[in-house]
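Field log, afternoon session.

UNIT: design team B
ACTIVITY: writing a sequence onto a fixed backbone
BACKBONE:
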């Protein structure tokens, strides 16, 4: 069975902190840097773990409701 490995096409991966900064928009300088990075050429990978961690933090730390957490996950 041949593995469909497209990692060579990726510019990098986004970790939980990047996802949270983008969703929360709580640090203007970091958000601008993230937007500039994402506007560039290339695709980025988001691991399941980073996505689950972001959802956990939004729920437990920032007290987002379930709908807000789900909307945030789709907004990435």
């Amino acid at each position: 069975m041949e593995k469909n490995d497209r990692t060579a096409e990726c510019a990098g991966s986004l970790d939980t902190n990047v996802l949270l900064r983008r969703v929360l928009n709580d640090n203007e300088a970091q958000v601008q840097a993230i937007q500039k990075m994402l506007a560039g050429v290339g695709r980025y990978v988001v691991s399941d773990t980073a996505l689950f961690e972001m959802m956990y933090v939004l729920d437990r730390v920032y007290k987002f409701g379930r709908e807000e957490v789900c909307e945030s996950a789709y907004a990435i």
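LOG NOTE: Residues 14 and 57 are 16 Å apart (CA to CA).
NEXT ACTIVITY: expression trials, pending approval
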